[in-house]
Every structure is written in C-alpha cells, then in structure tokens.
Write a structure and sequence with these properties.
Layout (H helix, E strand, L loop, with lengths): L10 E7 L2 H10 L48 E11 L8 E16 L2 E14 L2 E13 L23 E5 L3 H11 L9 H6 L10 H15 L7 E6 L9 E7 L3 E7 L5 E8 L1
Antiparallel strand pairs: 1-3, 2-5, 2-7, 3-4, 4-5, 6-8, 7-10, 8-9, 9-10
Helix pairs in contact: 1-2
Length: 278
Amino acid sequence: MDDYSAWVGRSETREDVATIAPMRGLAALLDHDAVPDIVPPLGHWLYFLPDARQSTIGADGHPRRDGAGLLPPVPLPRRMWAGSRIEYLSPIAAGAALRRVTTIDAIKPKRGASGDLLFVTLRHDIAADGVAAIREEQDIVFRAPAAASPAPPPPPVEPAEPEQSDATRSVVPDPVMLFRYSALTFNAHRIHYDRDYARGVEGYAGLVVHGPLIATLLMDHFLQSVPGAAPRHFRFRAEAPLLDGAPFDLCLAHEGAGARLWARDAAGRATMRADVTV
C-alpha cells in the first residue's frame, strides 16, 4: 500500500453559522416538539456540510479522492465512519459564527479479513464566536471492493443473552428516516438511499443506517433518560452495520457520572458501542 505519511499534519479551515433550520430538522427527525436554542450534542454534524461540485462526485456519492482536497488519493473504494471521540468545551448558541480547523492526525494501513484497510484519523477543532466549543477525533476507514454479489445472510443463530440495560427503546429504520438524515447532512453516499448500489456494488443486504445517525439516536436516548444532563465527553465505535427495515434497540446502562450505550440488533448483538460522561 502507498505511503501516505506526508499527508499527516495537513489541515483545512472552514466557516459556518449555527443556523436554526438544521436544528429544527433534527428535532423533527428525532420526533421532538421543541427546538433548542443551543446546538444539541452531536448537532455540530449538521454544519460544515460537504459542498463539492457535482462534477467532482465519484461513483459512491462521495467526492473523488484525487489528492486535490484534504484527504489523500486512497485507491480503496469503500469508505466508512468507524467512530469518534468528542469533548464538549462550551455550548454553541443558535446564530453563533462557527470556525472548524480539521487536521489529519494519523494514517495507518492495516490488513483485515476482507483485505487491505486504511484508517485515517481527523481532528476537528470547532470554535463558536471565537470560543473553543468542541474537539473531535474522527476515524474513517477505507476498504477494498466488496464481492461481486451481496454476501449471503448469516445462518440463523439463537439470540445472544442480552446485556443488562437500564433503559431500552426500539427503532425501526426505514428509507424515509435514512433519506431525511442524508438530507440534513448533505450526505450523498449511495449506500443510504440506492438499494441496487448498496447490494450490487458494496455488498450489503439492504440500505445502510448511517453510523452518525445511530450515534445521534443513542445520544438522544441518553438525554431522554437523563433529563437536563450536559454531556462532557462522548465516544462511539461502529462494530457492524444496521440495515433498513430491521428493528434494533437503543440500550443504556448507567455508569457513574454518565452511561454506557449500545445499539443491539434483533439477534442481540451490539452493532455500535458508545459512552457518555457529564
């Protein structure tokens, strides 16, 4: 695999405004009546949206990686947001002027069961009206092409013994939910809305639920379970995909000044793990 060490340390700066419309859209998606007057936890993902010109979009819906942007020209075609670690430093009021500096912190090649992998860690430093507000480390993984046809479904298994949850809520993701989140985040990745592409090219059995959407649902589950909580740290790690039409559970277990969170599929397997402290 090519050596991308020269790309480590590269950065870009973007500016935005914490407008109320995206927060209103997120509230609607989460089935809330009230719209907050500060950006809710994980709501910063609604800003600094991708704005690549249509002529630069690749076959997967992401901008082509030709070395012209921040990311290196990685030839591995499949891309996934694998996880994040977030520190909340100060609240972001609606209408605040936002500034984000994104730096490539690390690029690490690995070899997995499915072939070559490349992990890219981005650090996002976000300020609101000149005050440091959020620090996030984001892990992106690039993977080799999928098999020519979708992988067969796994053989039936007995549901795993579920981990003890203090609060559980069931979600049934459908194409409308996935479309609305894609629209909120201007995410054109075709695995979230193009079933033929998701199955025939990337090898999934259906439309893939966005990792950050699952993380947002987990955070919302925590905030609904612990009213008035002000998260200080949040981290999540995706372990397996969730697909549209398949119900899954949001689970919470209280731990000290915070909670352990996970998404659980119908077989009882954790597909994303997260934790939050206040």
